Amino acid sequence: MAVTDTSARIQAAFTEAGVTGWLHALDIDSGAQLGSGADQLVCTASVHKLCLLVTLHQLAAAGALDLGEQVDCPPAGRTAGPTGLAAMLDPVRMSLRDVAYLMMAVSDNAAADLLLGRVGLDAVNRVTARLGLPRTHAVHTFGELLATIREDAGPGGAGALTDPHVITRLRALDPARTNRSTPRDMTRLLGAVWRDEACTPEHGAAIRRVLGLQVWPHRMASGFPFDDVHVAGKTGSLPTVRNEVGVVEYPDGGRYAVAVFTRTANTAATLPAADAVIGTAARIAVDALRAP
């Protein structure tokens, strides 16, 4: 299938689901690729936790930190969120490795900021620069990101986020002012992780394992409902934003990095079609890369 036909099918799927979308897909081994808006600057939301995970493992490989190091997470001052440490009520002590698991598997914001407190945003940006991701940049911790949403929403609080006029003023949704990347940068990062170019083989395997433990099946994985096809990835969500980047592995050895970023004008928090189209678009792209 021609790349233009594939791109048209992907865009038609986005339109039918009521979203604007951007995608890049990469055959990790052959280098074949295709995209639709692959170089569009997008806000990453929690997808940026992948960059933090890679940074953590690079530092561990260099001997700058020990993943078994125990860290405390007291209830006071935890970054807000509905999962993991962010939702817990009591003091917690655990290893950096297990904090990273919570950050990736359930997108725990408190876990992410605990790790950022240990390694720093500058370290994350140095790693993405070294890996050749020129348009990927972390501006905020996740607590700071949420704080900008609260400030920009104004006195109406979370309820104001259903107002399209409020949505337009959120700095968190402006790639020029928030954590950002492009679909192509994200597949390049995933390819480097799967080829053991981002970290040593030991640490690359650890990263891949954690990405495979993500609990959300309603986005990219929904496009590959097969027992013998494995999807490992990281979602990202903000008001009107639904993203996922991941790697789809087939039993014949095929490995495909896919990055899908979407926006919708609909401010509803629950939009099943907008979630599912991430899987649909990823499947269209991977099928095209696998076509003879």
Note the beta-strand portion.
Answer: 15-25%
* Uncertain stretches: none
Q: Helical segment tally?
A: 10
Instruction: Let me know the number of strands.
Output: 9
Helical content (DSSP H or I, runs of 4+): 40-55%
Give me the Rg, rounded. 18 Å
Give the helix/strand class: alpha+beta
Mean pLDDT: 96
SSE sequence, one letter per element: HEEEHEEHHHHHEHHEEEH
Largest sheet: 5 strands, antiparallel
Strand order of the largest sheet: 2-1-9-8-7
Overall geometry comes to: globular
Q: How far from one another are the termini?
A: 9 Å
Question: Can you describe this structure?
Answer:
With 292 residues, this protein is of the alpha+beta class. 40% of the residues lie in helices and 17% in strands. The protein is globular.
Q: What tags apply to this protein structure?
A:
292 residues, alpha+beta, two-stranded antiparallel sheet
Task: Describe the structure concisely.
Helix content is 40%, strand content 17%. It has 292 residues and is α+β, with helices and mostly antiparallel strands.
Blueprint (SSEs and pairs):
Layout: H1 3-17, E1 20-27, E2 33-36, E3 42-43, H2 49-61, E4 70-73, E5 92-95, H3 96-105, H4 109-119, H5 121-130, H6 142-153, H7 164-167, E6 180-181, H8 183-194, H9 201-211, E7 230-238, E8 241-249, E9 255-263, H10 272-290
Antiparallel strand pairs: 1-2, 1-9, 3-6, 4-5, 7-8, 8-9
Helix pairs in contact: 1-10, 2-4, 2-5, 2-9, 3-4
